[in-house]
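Bumping my old thread because nobody answered last time. Still need a sequence for this structure:
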């Protein structure tokens, strides 16, 4: 995935996370010279809300809910972004406290954006050693994307009024209000606005206290507080830790970083040192020309995006995991399955009080809709943060989720892999390796290609199984049960007789003969148009059976020469194949002009089966039935298509059969077993 195609965050259409000053006044969050923006910590929607508020309000100063005693390390950590940092210090009891710094946090965005635009940023919170972990029952921030920021804040602020409070809240709010009031009185003019970014829990109280302090007019007394904290260290967040401890998913953090337009073009290292230095040396100078603060914002695009907001990011996440899953296992998930997966994950989140799924809920849904392999790919994509470095300027710090939270949910993956135990009597030698790149591929000349006999035998056995299964189903469909009158016909039907034992009536089976038997077998894993611009299955072939135990075969598959696993041995995956007997009767299927009415490769194989099958019934295994035109063609040929849905068959067996190998010549078969493991 290139930097241009990497997903970015884009709110729903039109942008609902924007607040004007009039809307803040209606919410009771604005005073003359002051505007308070309530946020949720560690939420993507709140970070974007802060960004939009700075754009529309153009404040003269920013007041952020951080203690001034941590101001210096916070500024240095913000200057390192998009590299992740963590601030560490010890409380009064000696217990370590950790503060991760990530892009999609509202407070971090306020500090970062203020420095980028030359707006003075002030830390106005109170430094306390221990703040109780109180969980407010607040509406999910995802609701702001559909209801709008104003309606969401009105509902959230009403919920806060009913939430619990602790004694530390009063001390913190008094300190914030005192510092904000001092900032307002220090502004040069009455039109200057101080934008306060603080948590939802404290917004209304801060507004009330600031109004009281400004109305008093007397000189404000400075509250007693800690102004300096010893032992504060700044660390680089280690890559394994970034997968666990971030409030937002690393995938979401990366998308938000790209949406800011400040992410480095390469995701291989930190930003240039000059950029970090200039960020703060010019912080109090005149603001730079920034398109985000232009008087006339750019016209929005008329084309509505297909997937926006948080759910659009989660869909992009599942799509990337789907590609990785296909590359690793050769299996493909339908695009509709991803939508159903997200719908299930959202309902799971709703049962636990949220609107959008978290990582745990998303992984559980992925496991249920696919398997552990796909769930693991979802976890890998979701927890990957592209801006990491092996040589940070600060010492890396490894953290676990249990270092930050007491209640943690764990999920264990059980991916399906080939596991072999060591045996005393048998030692599996490692596969030989190429002496130089391309050595094995040079043995393919394209004239004497052949298959691997054990795989041919497995296909023939599976074709026989499908024929017998179809024959049983056809016979069962022609069998009727009726009360005994004059003849026993094909015997007594015991089940129906016992079911009607109270009526003292015998029931007999009457089997009507089935016209024709199963002949050719077509198995379609994935269909593809014949004129695909970038085909996934570009290789097609018609093979004749080598003896009476196997029949002829036509197939389309991935390119076996693109993945060489041994000298003259290529590996590929079937898109579909056709089995027909007796051998030596089917030639040039893909070049035959008789099948020109086919629209796709699956239809071409089906038409070839109708034409070459010695029996009347043609077994067609595919995800969907053939179109009506092909059924009419079969009727004209005196053939009948028996469709078997692919989902009715064992996915484990189909997964094994789909993988096959192409050998350069017959001599390669003798040593192929060392490179092909069953």
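Sorry it took so long. Here it is:
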């Amino acid at each position: 995935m290139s930097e241009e195609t990497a997903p970015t965050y884009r709110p729903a259409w039109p942008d609902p996370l924007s607040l004007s000053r009039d809307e803040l006044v209606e919410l009771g969050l604005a005073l003359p010279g002051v505007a308070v923006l309530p946020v949720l910590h560690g939420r993507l929607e709140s970070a974007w809300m802060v960004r939009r508020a700075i754009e529309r309000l153009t404040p003269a100063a920013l007041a952020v809910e951080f203690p001034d005693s941590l101001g210096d390390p916070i500024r240095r950590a913000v200057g390192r972004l998009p590299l992740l940092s963590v601030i560490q210090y010890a409380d009064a009891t000696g217990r370590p406290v950790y503060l991760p710094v990530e892009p999609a946090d509202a407070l971090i965005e306020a500090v970062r954006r203020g420095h980028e635009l030359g707006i003075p940023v002030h830390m106005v919170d109170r430094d306390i050693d221990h703040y109780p972990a109180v969980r407010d029952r607040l509406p999910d921030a995802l609701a702001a994307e559909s209801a709008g920021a104003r309606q969401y804040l009105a509902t959230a602020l009403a919920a806060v009024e009913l939430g619990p409070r602790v004694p530390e809240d009063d001390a913190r709010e008094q300190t914030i209000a005192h510092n904000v009031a001092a900032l307002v009185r220090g502004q040069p003019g009455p039109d200057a606005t101080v934008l306060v970014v603080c948590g939802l829990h404290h917004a209304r109280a801060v507004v009330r206290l600031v109004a009281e302090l400004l109305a008093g007019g007397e000189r404000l007394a400075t509250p007693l507080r800690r102004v300096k904290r010893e032992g504060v260290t700044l660390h680089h967040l280690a890559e394994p830790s970034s997968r666990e401890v971030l409030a937002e998913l690393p995938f979401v953090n990366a998308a938000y970083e790209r949406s800011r337009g400040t992410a480095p073009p390469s995701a291989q290292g930190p930003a240039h040192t000059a950029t970090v230095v200039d960020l703060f040396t010019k912080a109090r100078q005149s603001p730079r020309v920034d398109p985000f603060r232009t008087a006339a914002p750019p016209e929005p695009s008329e084309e509505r995006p297909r997937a926006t907001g948080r759910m659009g990011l989660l869909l992009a996440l599942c799509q990337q995991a789907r590609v990785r899953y296909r590359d690793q296992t050769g299996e493909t998930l339908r695009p509709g399955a991803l939508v159903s997966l997200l719908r299930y994950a959202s309902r799971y989140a709703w049962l636990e009080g949220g609107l959008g799924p978290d990582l745990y809920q998303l992984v559980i849904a992925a496991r249920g809709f696919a398997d552990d392999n796909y769930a693991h790919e979802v976890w890998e994509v979701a927890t990957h943060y592209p801006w990491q470095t092996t040589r940070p300027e600060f010492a890396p710090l490894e953290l676990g989720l249990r270092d930050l939270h007491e209640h943690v949910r764990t999920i264990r993956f059980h991916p399906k892999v080939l596991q072999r135990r060591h045996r005393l009597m048998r030692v599996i030698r490692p596969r030989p390796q190429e002496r130089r790149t391309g050595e094995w591929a040079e043995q393919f000349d394209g004239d004497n290609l052949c298959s691997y006999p054990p795989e041919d035998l497995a296909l023939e056995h599976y074709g026989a199984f499908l024929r017998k299964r179809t024959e049983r189903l056809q016979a069962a469909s022609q069998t009727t049960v009726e009360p005994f009158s004059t003849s026993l016909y094909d015997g007594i039907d015991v089940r129906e007789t016992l079911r009607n034992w109270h009526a003292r009536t015998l029931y007999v089976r009457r089997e009507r003969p089935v016209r024709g038997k199963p002949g050719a077998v077509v198995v379609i894993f994935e269909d593809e148009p014949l004129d695909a611009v970038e085909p996934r299955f570009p290789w097609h072939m018609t093979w004749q059976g080598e003896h009476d135990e196997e029949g002829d075969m036509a197939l389309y598959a991935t390119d076996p020469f693109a993945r060489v696993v041994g000298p003259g041995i290529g590996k590929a995956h079937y898109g579909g194949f056709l089995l027909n007997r007796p051998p030596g009767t089917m030639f040039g299927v893909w070049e035959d002009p008789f099948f020109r009415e086919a629209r796709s490769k699956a239809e071409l194989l089906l038409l070839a089966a109708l034409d070459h099958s010695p029996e009347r019934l043609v077994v067609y295994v595919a995800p969907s039935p053939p179109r009506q035109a092909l059924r009419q063609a079969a009727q004209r040929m005196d053939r009948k298509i028996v469709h078997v849905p692919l989902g009715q068959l064992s996915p484990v067996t189909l997964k094994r059969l789909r993988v096959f190998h192409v050998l350069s010549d017959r001599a390669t078969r003798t040593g192929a077993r060392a490179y092909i493991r069953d």
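The chain has a mean pLDDT of 81. Let me know if any region looks off to you.
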